[in-house]
Amino acid sequence: MLVKAEKIAYFWKNVIQKNVFKHIFNRRFMPKYFLFLMFFLGMLLPEPQVNAQVYEYTPSAAGCTGVWEDGNCWNVIPLNEPLNCTDNGPWPPFAPTGCNVEVIINDDLVIPADIEFGGTFTSLTVGAGAEVTFSGNLSIEGRKEILFSLEGESFINVAGALTLSQGSSTIQTVLNLGGEFTGMLTVGSIEIENRAVLEVLEGGAITSEGPTEYSGNSSVINVTGFFRTQSLLVTGGRLHQFNTYGNSQVVIDDDIDIRGDTGITIGGTSEVYVGRDVLVDGSATIIADDNSKIFVCGEYIPPSEGGRTQEIDEGKFFPCSVLPVELLDQEVEFHDGLRKARLTWETGKEEDLRHFIIERAVGSSEDFEPLGKVEGTGSTTEKGTYEFWDANLPLFKTRVYYRLVQVDVYGKHNFIGEVLGLAVPGTHSASAAWVFFPNPSLGADAKISVLNQDKYNGEPIDLDIYGPFGLAASLKSSALERLNRELPDKMKTLSTGVYFLHIHWGNQRQVLKILKK
Question: What pTM, to 2 d.p., does this model score?
Answer without folding.
Answer: 0.58
